[in-house]
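User: quick one
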Amino acid sequence: MKPEELRFVETHEWIAPDGTVGISDHAQHEITDVVFVELPKPGRVVKSGEAVAAVESVKAAFDIYAPVSGTIAAVNESVTKTPGLVNQSPYEAGWLFKVKADREEERNGLMTHETYQTFLKSETH
Amino acid sequence: MPIETPPPLEPLIFELSVAGRRGLPWPKPDIAEAENESPLPAALRRRTPPEWPEVAEPQVVRHFTRLSQLNFSVDTHFYPLGSCTMKHNPKAADRVVLLPDFIGLHPLRPHTLSQGILEILHDTERWLCAICGMDAFTLQPSAGAQGELTGVLIARTYHESRGQNRPVVLIPDSAHGTNPASVAVAGLTAVTIASTPDGHVDVDVLKSKLGPDVALVMLTIPNTLGLFEPRLREIAKMVHDAGALLYMDGANLNALVGLLRPGDLGVDLLHINLHKTFSTPHGGGGPGAGPVGVKAFLSEFLPTPRVVKEDGVYRRRMDFPKSIGKIHGFMGNVGIVLRAYCYLRLLGEEGIRHVSENAILAANYLRVKLAPLFPKMPKKPCMHEVVVSGEGAFGPGVHTLDVAKRLLDEGFHAPTIYFPLIVPEALMIEPTETETKETLDLFCKTLESIVEESRTSPEKVTSAPHRTPIRRVDEVKAAREPDLRFKRIP
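Assistant: Done. Structure below.
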């Protein structure tokens, strides 16, 4: 998936037009080598901003928040077996889960790749 | 003292084993062997005996003595591990605990034959009440996190006893990481509140989240940035107006003893760590103690049994129907409480005040003295620990992790690194009150030379440590492919 086609949230998750969710290249770089991924159960109803998954690196564990409200439609089992995929391929093989949005419009309100890049520069650290 | 050459690796005790070798001849058992009498089903019973190491006594003594010499510990090295408060454990307290009268105690002895230890527990509770400004204490919880769980359970039970359903606990992102975990274990939901850019609770955000669903607000004071919460009274009023309770994670009480009483500022309940503030041993995973103090209106919810004094006699009482129940076997880790009791007796009211004054002084001494090395060193005074970002301080490609590893070469335990998460490349330095100015100066000088080295020969820092028996550990491989079982390689 090209980053330009994705939408981003301030907590560094991205969401594709088909509802696929992962973490940004910036985020994978910041948290360093991912060693463990915990994914939600398919069918779980989630609200935007709710912690639904966890990614653990040698530094610390991080919550992954749902970028939109909806239902978990699928999860990427291969990242639980090979957590390094999140680092190697944050926008392709390292996706985490798919969420079927309650309202398609919700995604359109999120940051574009360009806005996200500006947001990263504006972050205090 | 710097370690000059890497000490040799010590083999595992299993690798020293030789079949048939014995330390002591064991007497023949004088009772019949209990074969086939195990209450466990056969499927759960071991079929082959365990592979205990078979070694002679001198080997055992040398093996463990050498292991102890390879250890970094407060007894051998400066140990500025921020947030953990690795301070000196007074040997007098260890000595008292080993007295035969204390070693021979049994928790099932009747109270009539346990008056001494019950008096010690009772007095320790009273002194902790006086230090914290609380009305009652339990000494049962065996660690800070278990104290948190006890506190959250007390808050939940309190609200339930008033017929209120309050499932939410608010926690700032500068709190200890165990707080949200304790909330989840107690069956409530943790909601994080972001801090202001200068590291304090965002009072407006807190206010917007306070409502009839909030049971508790948990503040770590001083917080993990080593900062005191200046608007604590105002926060307490807001929390109480919303019908919620104010909990203080008092793991960092080391900065406040004798200077300020949390109970006077509106805190309803708190836990403290005897293995931090009150100098009981910290290493080896315990045992610890995380006593919980409460205001009078919460005392009926404390765990049982509780020590009470009636007509001059100390008793253990169980009859508190609203109690959350037991948190630990018997009275908690009594040997640890006894060490804290000795510490309080050794210092007295005047001495205990100097503990926090000197802890704060030492941290601020390092803050000012290290400022030329770190462009992002905080300008404002800190409490008992100083948190600084390593950003912009080191040579190309050198990170905080590398500098921490290089410190090991120079005979210093590394400070806490990459915590708190809200500070990038964080170093969290807590010198504690027990270090001399000479030690602090040597630490600063060493850090200065490592920073210099990170510019002149960065590869020497990024490949550190060089003088420890194990060099740089591959943490990623260890986490991804853990290999935790001993296998004998023939």
